[in-house]
Amino acid sequence: MARRRYKHSEKKVGASPGTLVYVGQEIDYKTTIRRIDYNEADYTIETVKKLALCTRPSEASPLVSWLDVDGIHEPQVVERIGQQYQLHPLLLEDVMNSQQKPKVEEYDGSYLFVTLKMLYFTKSGQELEHEHLSFVLGKNYLISFQEERKADLFQPILDRIQASAGKTRRNGSDYLLYALLDLVVDHYFVVLDSIGEKLEILENSIIEQVASQQTLTRLYTLKRELTLMRKLVWPVREIVNRILLEESDLIRPATIPFLRDLYDHVVQVLDSIDSYRELATGLLDVYLSTLSNRMNAVMKTLTIFSAIFMPLTFIVGVYGMNFDNMPELHTRNGYYVVLLIMVVLTVLMIIYFRRRKWF
Amino acid sequence: MARRRYKHSEKKVGASPGTLVYVGQEIDYKTTIRRIDYNEADYTIETVKKLALCTRPSEASPLVSWLDVDGIHEPQVVERIGQQYQLHPLLLEDVMNSQQKPKVEEYDGSYLFVTLKMLYFTKSGQELEHEHLSFVLGKNYLISFQEERKADLFQPILDRIQASAGKTRRNGSDYLLYALLDLVVDHYFVVLDSIGEKLEILENSIIEQVASQQTLTRLYTLKRELTLMRKLVWPVREIVNRILLEESDLIRPATIPFLRDLYDHVVQVLDSIDSYRELATGLLDVYLSTLSNRMNAVMKTLTIFSAIFMPLTFIVGVYGMNFDNMPELHTRNGYYVVLLIMVVLTVLMIIYFRRRKWF
Amino acid sequence: MARRRYKHSEKKVGASPGTLVYVGQEIDYKTTIRRIDYNEADYTIETVKKLALCTRPSEASPLVSWLDVDGIHEPQVVERIGQQYQLHPLLLEDVMNSQQKPKVEEYDGSYLFVTLKMLYFTKSGQELEHEHLSFVLGKNYLISFQEERKADLFQPILDRIQASAGKTRRNGSDYLLYALLDLVVDHYFVVLDSIGEKLEILENSIIEQVASQQTLTRLYTLKRELTLMRKLVWPVREIVNRILLEESDLIRPATIPFLRDLYDHVVQVLDSIDSYRELATGLLDVYLSTLSNRMNAVMKTLTIFSAIFMPLTFIVGVYGMNFDNMPELHTRNGYYVVLLIMVVLTVLMIIYFRRRKWF
Amino acid sequence: MARRRYKHSEKKVGASPGTLVYVGQEIDYKTTIRRIDYNEADYTIETVKKLALCTRPSEASPLVSWLDVDGIHEPQVVERIGQQYQLHPLLLEDVMNSQQKPKVEEYDGSYLFVTLKMLYFTKSGQELEHEHLSFVLGKNYLISFQEERKADLFQPILDRIQASAGKTRRNGSDYLLYALLDLVVDHYFVVLDSIGEKLEILENSIIEQVASQQTLTRLYTLKRELTLMRKLVWPVREIVNRILLEESDLIRPATIPFLRDLYDHVVQVLDSIDSYRELATGLLDVYLSTLSNRMNAVMKTLTIFSAIFMPLTFIVGVYGMNFDNMPELHTRNGYYVVLLIMVVLTVLMIIYFRRRKWF
Amino acid sequence: MARRRYKHSEKKVGASPGTLVYVGQEIDYKTTIRRIDYNEADYTIETVKKLALCTRPSEASPLVSWLDVDGIHEPQVVERIGQQYQLHPLLLEDVMNSQQKPKVEEYDGSYLFVTLKMLYFTKSGQELEHEHLSFVLGKNYLISFQEERKADLFQPILDRIQASAGKTRRNGSDYLLYALLDLVVDHYFVVLDSIGEKLEILENSIIEQVASQQTLTRLYTLKRELTLMRKLVWPVREIVNRILLEESDLIRPATIPFLRDLYDHVVQVLDSIDSYRELATGLLDVYLSTLSNRMNAVMKTLTIFSAIFMPLTFIVGVYGMNFDNMPELHTRNGYYVVLLIMVVLTVLMIIYFRRRKWF
């Protein structure tokens, strides 16, 4: 059961801060970059072939420019984009460090940096995976960085932009940021639903007493996943809250109610995580007491058998002795009397255990 | 044991925010809407047949207008009411989302939105159910939305309005909101009483040691219900507190003491929930140690039987051997001596176990 | 084991707020009211026969007027007093609701309302009971309401007033309130001492390993009582703190140090409650591990018996077989050799178990 | 195992506040009072024989005057000192109440009252005792009250005063207070070290699996002592913090860094207490699982014996039957065949249990 | 298993505060001191032979002066440096007290004192060790004190200074402090990774059910190390936060983003510690329930054997009795009938236990 743990690469110890190193899994394809420019009237979508074309739009540009960077493992790509958009080196380091905790930071009021995790279950549904996402929000542009190519992750937003001049097209880059964050939080609910279903299966097997050691291992894994999820979602609440409170110029007032709605959703995710954790703990208690109960039942069975057959075996042993002088052996009905005594004894034993409610 | 869980419908992932989708159980009847207009002098109650008649009363109207909407599953109905009362689309989304956490929100000081959960046990008394309620409070109107037709839910208030020109009739829409919230909180107490009774039954069966595995399952279910209840009532405390603190123009000063009283009640509900949770945890400990105690008793019984009969069986086995040269077999009283030895041994064993307080 | 639980009467659901209903145990005697007027120079104590005589003293009166109302189950009495002293209806509701949480409230700076619980053990010392007390403090008057006639509850204060022109007589109604609250808190210490003694008895029986299932039930009951006590005393801390912080005109500066002292005492009560709870939890752990230890001892006894006698019984069984051709049976010393072998085997077993420190 | 518990004497219930009653253990010797006057140039130490000589030094006095009162059980002594130094009656009550929680209080900026506990193990090292200490700090005087004569408690400070015109002599009464408090906190470390050593012994005996029921009782006692210690040291942190924050005129700026250092030490004590508590809890878990492990081992032994000898005993029983027609009995090698079968069966059993890793 | 505990040397009790005593392990080599002066243009590194040369650089000096003191056990060395740099005596005491909790303190805005712990595993990887580090930051100088010679601890920074006129050389002493703190925090990650690996090994052995008592001891040791680590890292978070908040003149604005980054890392360390602790607790639960499960399996085996063989042994015992009159013994097929009966009985038993899912 191999798991990807939070690993802070050793080779980085002592490296000069701001050195760009990709910390995470090795990936073998090239970064792909798409640029989407749109306003209410029109939109263009193109795949960027040359990094030199990733330029910051002029402040006067009436279009919202979305640069969608897919892949964060090539330092030179990230660095080049950073230069052309004039981003702080530590920000770029955070973009590439897939172990970076979710956070928000505003740089001189000129751009806002948000990084958080996308969560999903692997295809097999066995492992909870997370993917590092970063967003840079400027006046009329947004850059999104994602760790791995998940062709369909931002697709719903692209579809909406292409579909019609709807809310997304009518609003600015801040609304686009909101829409993308909302998408990420919606995926948290999908993960939660999946965990909820697994928990329900475990609950049923425990309450119907068909649980095994494996059930417990699964329960433990679920608790682990909930702990991880909590750790990754908790700061998202703080991120949205800070965007709401800081009244940055980059966030238009019209976007505020949407962000407040997003905040509610994140809180709901956290609430559900906590409920599930409590549930899992309660289930463990039920399971352990089930074990105790079963042990009790087993022990009672053993004791009843022993208490009935030990005296009987002793009695027949007595009349198996070879003493010359054992008058009972030579009586006519001795054998039948002994059989009768043993039947009576057994009946008494059974009555006794019934009285003590042992079966 | 099927249970309704918090489920955030998957199909919503990626949908444009503000899209009205009913998230909850499918229901097959039409929304019914009642409109109650009253002041100290008079009142009218009518069932609204045409949505066009659900209009916001003019600010100058001397009547309090209460629109009681029963059913939140038809988007076009909710949307139409929203348009005619000029409500924010996200508010309407919250009205229809039966998974929405309880909360309060004020929109530009012109209306106040409150949503919370009504709690009740199913007829069978087995399952704790919750129903999504929303209120929109304006200067001289109140809209109430409820998830399912519970004919008797708001009936006591209607009765009071019809009965006499009492406190409800003499006061404004804010007092009506208070009266409805008070009703909801009163139902929390009913649920709590029911949980308290169940807990007492479990307590008795555990302390009198007639508890079974089923007792434990029930205890677990109770803890779960208390956890759910806490999750749903906790934000209500915050709601009432914020209404008290924010000094909205929509809340008249005369209503404040009543709201403070309501606040006290909610805190009392939360206190009782916490007490019950602690009680349940304590009961679990008692139950588990009861199991250990019982196991001890069973094991002692087994050990006593074994310790008495194993040596006896061995002795009679010795004299069951077929060696040619076993002088004891041929003595006159050998048999009786062996019987005596066994009686003495048994008595010694019994004394030994009595000394160790095994029985 | 019947217990009085927090029960919010169902019939109240939907009743108009401010309706006076006595919520608590039914009591069958009439309310008795005493009026004590005093200042440094003089005092009068009289039992009030007519409710009309319960009037608020004029602001100019140089006397402190204490109205001691014994019994809160007759709505008309409480209502009449409320009218004559011009008290808020919700306050009167709190006076009569014996389930009301302890709290303090100031009404327009003209009077202060305090309600809290008196705690005591029933005569049999088995059950922790609580009694609902309320105080209304005015400029020069104090009304005290108590749930049941406990002739001796406020007697020490009456004695002090009668005894001499001491501190109580020299000070105002605020000092009287302090003195009554101090009395209540002193009773908390009495209850705590009683719980402490019970805990010590349980501790001894657990540590000396003579504990039974009943010990556990008692431990559980104690924990329950501590939980209840904590719930009822915790808000008292808040009450005293708020009186101290709010700098009401009703509290003279000279009374402040006394209230601060009272605050210290309440905190000390809460500290002791928490210590006792921790102690009780620790004892439970010790008890459970004692059970495990005992089980281990029982199992070892069983295993030693089995391990010694099973092989022996097998050996004698072998020579009890009836094969024609068993040469050992016909040797001269076969019997003695077998006996010797069995002795050696037993000694080896005993050495083995001693080595493993089983006894 | 008699223990001194927090006991609030019952006879005090209803007594007028400010009544001086010694609450604590009965002690049979007289209070002794020493007066030490010093400044950088000189010092005098004298035992005060007449209470009339315990006078407050004039504000103009250039000497620091330390009144060291040993014994707090004689109300007339404490009262007289209180009168001559003009101390508040409630302060005197706190001085005499050995159950008083640690606290600090400033009276009108003219003197500061600090009370806390000295902790030490009894000579036998078995019981954690605490002693009630109080300090009254004035402009140029300090009064120290201690519960029992511990000749050596304040001796180090006296020695320093006598030794040379060092820091203590050069500084004011506030530094003297600091020095005394520092002494008390240093003793906390001594107690902690002692607890640490005991814990290490328990840890070793548990990890090396030689723990008995007694080990558990000791662990429980240690946890109790840590709980008590935490309760008594926690408010000391608050005391030092409040002295630091309140910027009283009684504390000179030069003393502030020393108090901050003292604060660090108290925090370190509290940290260690918490670490030890966690350690103790962890040890309990290890111990309990050790018990389970041992039980498992015992049960396996029993089961192996039973599983091997029960079938064997059955087989020899079969050939011990007395049927006329049992052909095997009369074959030549029947006996040896049966012996062989039994050996094979035993070997198979052993292989089976080895495979399941039972031994 | 000897461990170094937090030990506050007894001999210090009663010593005058500010007395320099080295509290920690005895070390037998001499302090070595290096002085590194650098700016963007140049750098010099020299080993200081005479203490007189450790002088504070003049405020006007354009170079950053780093004094790297290796060894804190010689009071006269620390005292001399303290004099020459005009440091507060209590600061020097903290430098030498290896038990000092991590903290930050600013002295009159002229220098900043930071002390914290370096963490590492011993070579054998068995024990978590910590080393006491202190830093004094002045306008253009930094003094670093380390407890033991770890030649390679600060080497990476020295290398960077020597390598090129990079960020370290271009920035001031505050950046140097940041770089050193960053190095310490990087080592926390190395320790965390090591703990994570150990935990993974334990997890595997527990989930694959090959855990022994030793596994538990290791789990306990890990939890202990995590507790220690948390205690030592927690205040570091506070240190960095306070440096960020206090806006000292000693910290240049350009260094702020780097410190914020450092803060993020410390928080990430603390998060991981908490996750690991939860994991360890979860593992313990799994382990304990594994034990219960195994016990259940063992008991079932025993009970099945007993339930099958006890009745059989009884039956053969019956026909081993020596009664004269036992007709069955003399029938022709008696023996075979009994054998058949026993086979049937065994089959029934097996069916019964299979039904109850015992194997």
Automatic annotation (TrEMBL), chains A, B, C, D, E:
Domain of life: Bacteria
Topology class, membrane: Multi-pass membrane protein
Compartments it resides in: Cell membrane; Membrane
Keywords for the protein's UniProt record, in alphabetical order: Cell membrane, Ion transport, Magnesium, Membrane, Transmembrane, Transmembrane helix, Transport
Keyword set includes Glycoprotein: no
Transmembrane is among the record's keywords: yes
Transmembrane segments: 302-322, 334-353
Function: Mediates influx of magnesium ions.
NCBIfam families in UniProt: corA (TIGR00383)
Protein family according to the UniProt entry: Belongs to the CorA metal ion transporter (MIT) (TC 1.A.35) family.
PANTHER family from the UniProt entry: CORA FAMILY METAL ION TRANSPORTER (EUROFUNG)
Name of the protein in question: Magnesium transport protein CorA
Organism: Larkinella bovis
